[in-house]
Amino acid sequence: MASLKDLKNRIASVQSTRRITSAMKMVAAAKLRKAQINAEAARPYAERMERMLGSLASGSKGENAPKLLAGTGKDDTHLIVLVSSDRGLCGGFNGNLARDVRNRIDSLTAAGKTVKLIIIGRKGVTLLKRDHADKIVATYEELSKPEPSFEGASEVCEKITDMFEAGEFDVCTLIYNKFVSALTQEVTPLQLIPFASEETGEAAEAGAGDAQYEYEPEEEAILEALLPKNLSVQAFRAMLESFASEQGARMTAMDNATRNAGDMINKLSITYNRTRQAQITSELIEIISGAEAL
Amino acid sequence: MADTVALELVSPEKLLMSEEVELAILPGSEGDLGVQPGHSPVIATVRPGTIAVFKGNTVEKRIFVAGGFLEITPERCTVLAETAIAVEDIDQTAAKQEIADLQDDVKVAKDDAARAKAEAALAVAEAKLEAAVSPAYA
């Protein structure tokens, strides 16, 4: 059995761990609130852009539609953009992402497609480096520091558009943790290129019902400027969601850790007290039996 | 018909402004657009320039935008801008410095892509200074 001194040390160390985890939990809670506000503040822009894009896209579905909208017509090479976190200690946040990406890569390769990876966040790099190092084309770290910025998202998207224009991939999917609540995140794929969401279909119909727009300059020119911007907006939104999810996941993980540490301290204290009592009893027995022997 | 139009100015980070205005003049890339209630629907790109919000016959507010998109319907007018700053908040010395820096960038740019990027940034900076020095519709 461990000595009293050992037990005391253990208790002290678990106590300081608990102090750290509970502090981290509180920091994450504060950051989560801010991240949620940010994510909400960014919503109007994305909504309006979607509306504009919807009414524009309905007008140009023909052959001369920009490639970003229509795609290359093939789907041989897939680019997966993964939004992970820079820091760990946030439960299954990055693990779930990595698992989903691995499955996706496996099924795509099984279907004979080529896969390329762009990873945002240090943790995602660490998790996927071992198995899929040859597929990683670019990594971004510390983009969301102190919080996700539109410039950061644009930087990534510039790289994506450059690659697309160079014909390096046909389909681009963004994978991120969608914020459902502070307790749950959902790994969500979002197809960026070709731009084809159901929402656009609905928006396009609604747009067609509205009055016809005039365009200045021509539709194609606006679309050409709008599409890359939309890409950045989508990526930015994903980054904000992912950031909020990360804080939520960390908060939950740290809450659990704090609770576990508390349980552990209780158990250790009981062992400590029992051990001390046993020691006292055995000392007494020694004294008494010593006195009797006289 | 209402006698005001809802003007919204939105940046990717947040909704910057949302108010009812009588008349606003927006810098479209192919010429300024005056927006009053009942304007016909337009979607256009925005060049770096000043949005002037009128009250009666005087300009109530001037906002510099560095480009973006705008959507006009009879009831509302939405401007999607990346950066927007009130004209009176523009720091002229800083803007001049920025122009000088960017001019250097244009000179030392290695390839066409970098030069085009620097020139675009320079155009924005110049328009910003211009907006501060000589306010539109004064």
UniProtKB/TrEMBL annotation, chain A:
Gene3D superfamilies tied to this protein: 3.40.1380.10, ATP synthase, gamma subunit, helix hairpin domain
BP-aspect Gene Ontology terms: proton motive force-driven plasma membrane ATP synthesis
GO molecular function terms noted in the UniProt entry: ATP binding; proton-transporting ATP synthase activity, rotational mechanism
UniProtKB keywords: ATP synthesis, Cell membrane, CF(1), Hydrogen ion transport, Ion transport, Membrane, Transport
Membrane topology of the entry: Peripheral membrane protein
Where is it mainly found? membrane
Q: Where in the cell is it found?
A: Cell membrane; Membrane
- CDD domains per the record? F1-ATPase_gamma
The record's note on quaternary structure and interaction partners says: F-type ATPases have 2 components, CF(1) - the catalytic core - and CF(0) - the membrane proton channel. CF(1) has five subunits: alpha(3), beta(3), gamma(1), delta(1), epsilon(1). CF(0) has three main subunits: a, b and c.
Tell me, in a sentence or two, what this protein's role is. Answer: Produces ATP from ADP in the presence of a proton gradient across the membrane. The gamma chain is believed to be important in regulating ATPase activity and the flow of protons through the CF(0) complex.
Q: Family per UniProt?
A: Belongs to the ATPase gamma chain family.
Protein name per its UniProtKB record: ATP synthase gamma chain
Q: Which organism is it from?
A: Aestuariispira insulae
Q: Which gene encodes it?
A: atpG
UniProtKB/TrEMBL annotation, chain B:
**InterPro entries for this protein:** ATP_synth_F1_dsu/esu, ATP_synth_F1_dsu/esu_N, ATPsynth_dsu/esu_N
- UniProtKB keywords: ATP synthesis, Cell membrane, CF(1), Coiled coil, Hydrogen ion transport, Ion transport, Membrane, Transport
User: What does the record list as coiled-coil region(s)?
Assistant: 92-119
Provide the ATP synthase F1 complex delta/epsilon subunit N-terminal domain boundaries: 6-84
The record's GO CC annotations read: endomembrane system; plasma membrane; proton-transporting ATP synthase complex
Cell membrane is among the record's keywords = yes
Principal cellular location given in the protein's record: membrane
What is its membrane topology? Peripheral membrane protein
Which cell locations does it reside in?
Answer: Cell membrane; Endomembrane system
Name one molecular function that GO assigns to this entry.
proton-transporting ATP synthase activity, rotational mechanism
Check the record and name the Pfam families matching this protein: ATP-synt_DE_N (PF02823)
Q: What is the annotated quaternary arrangement, including any partners?
A: F-type ATPases have 2 components, CF(1) - the catalytic core - and CF(0) - the membrane proton channel. CF(1) has five subunits: alpha(3), beta(3), gamma(1), delta(1), epsilon(1). CF(0) has three main subunits: a, b and c.
Q: Which family does it belong to?
A: Belongs to the ATPase epsilon chain family.
Describe the task this protein carries out: Produces ATP from ADP in the presence of a proton gradient across the membrane.
Q: What NCBIfam families does its record include?
A: ATP_synt_epsi (TIGR01216)
Question: Know the name of this protein?
Answer: ATP synthase epsilon chain
Gene name of the record: atpC
